[in-house]
Amino acid sequence: MRERLRIADMLRAQKRHISFHTPGHKHAGADITELDYSDCLLSPDGVLKEAQEDIARILGAERSFLLTDGSTSGVFSMLWCLKAAGMRSVAAPAFSHPCVWNACNIFGLRMVPVVQETRFGIPLQPVLDQIKSALGQADALLLTSPDYYGNLPDLAAVSALCKAENKPFLIDGAHGGHLHFVPVLYAGSYADLWVDGVHKSLPALTQGAVVSAKSETWGGRLQAAVKLFRTSSPSYPIMASVEYAVKYPRNERVEAAADLFKTQYGCVGNTDWTKLLVPFGKNCRKAQLSLEAHGVYPEFNDGNYLMFYLSPRTREKDLKKLGKLLKKLPRDGVAEDAPAGVIPMYREER
Ligand SMILES: Cc1ncc(COP(=O)(O)O)c(C=O)c1O
Question: What's the pLDDT score for residue 1?
Fold first, then answer.
């Protein structure tokens, strides 16, 4: 049975009232502010506290915190925890999201790059030896799992390495919120601190995310950190949607349909069912424009591949339509030694 949605229930149960409070649109609907009955995200002791506790239980965390500012604020909060613990450096792959680089620059954390190889234009997840050699020069490790191409590092081996070296393991799971159903693939089964970007692969509103800690010690630091990097005006529609997304049931039908789609339509092999990666090589832009002319929009075009992002809400009939259109589009290969493609939202000076 589906779990109770505490924030949405509170919003639905509101009495009509006259708004002498923000926001300025004055419609006292779902987009309210922190009132007597709606709790306060900075120091929650009501419905937001209960929702966060539910989320922590579902995600296997000691503490989880609602974020309305995207995974970016979760990554900033995690890295701030390293500073709070007296650490000065963190090992992270060169293809980490710009927010990892930005946070390190702002906090004065030295980023030790973890070498990553590129094959067929895709930056691969670093292997254990590459991670080990970077971690030898750093106080902590941050990996992205899964990455934008749907690949995961060897989480069990990496977590064992970090434990053996007594160094914290952080995971940017901006693309992995849906994996809590599969503990062996889920960041929260391995990391000390991790982010779930639930607006990407689960049905939350844009910017909805969660940051979590495995232990009370890291949880205490994280509680202090989120106060620095979250807005002081959290959006109730986003918070309600985050709770909804984390409690959203698994959709094994669409997972199976996605796996079948990958083999039927020549997608690149990857672990994460939500990311369909179709090689088009030099025909990428043409293929993108042709799909868009039929009302079908991919997540990105990196110059080698079009990536189609799924979630438990993806409809099988839409997958079928995509398959039909893909059949008609001319493809071109991507050479094994092709340089990594450029994901538009990652384009930033480093
Ligand atoms: C790996 C990774 N981390 C973090 C982010 C930032 O997430 P958000 O846009 O929710 O702040 C992204 C966004 O694309 C991402 O791909």
Answer: 59
In testing the pocket of ligand 1, which one of 68, 95, 96, 99 has its CB within 8 Å of the most ligand atoms?
99
Residue ranges of domains in the chain, CATH in brackets: 6-246 (3.40.640.10), 252-346 (3.90.1150.10)
Predicted confidence at residue 28, as pLDDT, reads 75
CA–CA gap between residue 96 and residue 88 (Å, rounded)? 18
Cα–Cα distance, 329 to 290 (Å, whole number): 8
**CA 102 to ligand 1 center in whole angstroms:** 12
The minimum-distance atom of ligand 1 relative to the CA of 148 is 16
Decide if 174 contacts 195 (C-beta within 8 A).
yes
Angle at 343 between CA 340 and CA 348, to 5 degrees: 100
The rounded distance, in Å, linking the Cα atoms of 195 and 91 is 17
Task: Mark the ranges of the chain whose per-residue pLDDT is less than 50.
Answer: none
And the tokens for 178?
């849906």
266 contacts 331 by C-beta, under 8 angstroms: yes
**Token duo for residue 74:** 């979760």
Helical ranges in 14-97 per DSSP H: 47-59, 70-84
For helices 98-107 and 70-84, give the axis angle rounded to 10 degrees.
40
Distance CA 128, CA 150 (A): 18
Report the separation in Å between the CA atom of 188 and the middle of ligand 1, taken as the mean of its atom positions: 17
Name the residue at shortest CA distance from atom 9 of ligand 1: 70
Could you identify the atom of ligand 1 that is nearest to the CA of residue 144? 1
| Interstrand relation of 169-173 and 110-114 (parallel, antiparallel or unpaired) | unpaired
Which residues sit with their C-beta closer than 6 Å to ligand 1?
70-72, 75, 97, 99, 144, 148, 172, 174-175, 197, 209, 345
Candidate of 97, 241, 272 to mutate for ligand 1, largest count of ligand atoms within 8 Å of Cβ:
97
Ligand 1 atom nearest 172 alpha carbon: 3
Read off the tokens for 85: 């613990």
Predicted confidence at residue 349, as pLDDT, reads 53
